[in-house]
Specification:
transmembrane helix, 2 strands, Urease accessory protein UreH-like transmembrane domain-containing protein, globular
């Protein structure tokens, strides 16, 4: 019998199925390491196909990281990820990358100067179809690689219960890959829905491009700042990271109101929602 809440004494087959199912739940439930970023890039693509690709690229980077983490866990080398401060450091790093990406998206078409090799790697307006070009999805892949180092109930089960039970080092990475595939499937679906929603609005192509850039840029920039503040405060006041209110829901990511869930609501519902409302008002007012 598969117990996703507290898996124990797993056979090889059950362990691998459990890893994949946990990935599916991780991808569909509100998670601070996935939803804010997928939402931002999916809206920035302003189409169902683009939203699906946003979820794919983000989850591809995430899957690669989980495969590495799973292999390290097989050799008992992932213990450092279980320390509480690691999650807070990841918040800060993810937040900084989000803020930089948001700034880049909002400033596309203006004169910006980054580190030379970074400037060459990022597609500029003159090479990417101008200001109407969708948000570059390569950034989502980078986000996935970084966000994957965050820990939580899912990562704890994967690293401490499933990965160590693999019969050989050649299979140590497999639970991480299957977990990532489960997440990828759901994130592609969610990303497609976000993109489809904007695509279906009775707005001109230019208006959709403006909304996509405005909402994704603001969500990444201000959401990233919230991540940095949350991570910094949790490092200073460790009890903040441990704070939670039990909801009674027997599903990971929904079982408690905690810092992670607050971040999801604040970034997606707060920053993203307000940005979407303002963008719609601006498009309507300007007749774009």
């Amino acid at each position: 019998m598969i117990n996703l809440w507290n898996p124990q004494h797993l056979s090889l087959a059950i362990g691998l199925i459990t890893a994949c199912l946990l990935g599916v739940i991780h991808g569909i439930t509100p998670d601070e390491h996935t939803w804010p970023i997928t939402f931002s890039y999916s809206i920035g693509s302003y189409s169902s196909k683009g939203g699906m690709l946003a979820g794919f690229f983000f989850s591809l980077g995430f899957t690669l990281q989980r495969a590495i983490g799973s292999e390290l866990s097989y050799f008992a080398l992932a213990g450092f990820l279980m320390h509480g401060y690691v999650e807070n450091i990841v918040y800060i790093i993810v937040g900084l990358v989000m803020a930089c990406s948001g700034w880049y998206i909002l400033m596309r078409g203006h004169s910006i100067h980054l580190i030379p090799w970074v400037d060459k790697w990022l597609p500029h307006a003159s090479h990417a179809g101008g200001m109407d070009a969708p948000v570059p999805l390569r950034l989502a892949f980078v986000h996935g690689m970084i966000a994957g180092w965050g820990t939580g109930a899912f990562a704890t089960i994967l690293y401490t219960v499933i990965a160590p039970t693999m019969p050989s080092a050649w299979l140590g990475f497999v639970p991480g890959v299957l977990f990532g595939i489960g997440t990828l499937f759901m994130q592609m679906t969610i990303g497609a829905l976000f993109g489809w929603w904007l695509q279906r609005r009775q707005i001109s192509a230019a208006g959709k491009a403006f909304i996509g850039r405005y909402v994704s840029g603001n969500t990444l920039f201000y959401g990233g700042l919230l991540f940095v503040v949350a991570g910094g405060l949790a490092l200073i006041v460790p009890s903040l990271a441990e704070w939670s209110i039990n909801t009674g829901v027997h599903v990971h990511n929904l079982d408690a109101i905690n810092l992670g869930l607050v971040l999801v609501v604040a970034v997606v519902g707060g920053v993203g929602g307000v940005s979407m409302w303002r963008a719609m008002q601006m498009v309507t007012g300007k007749g774009i």
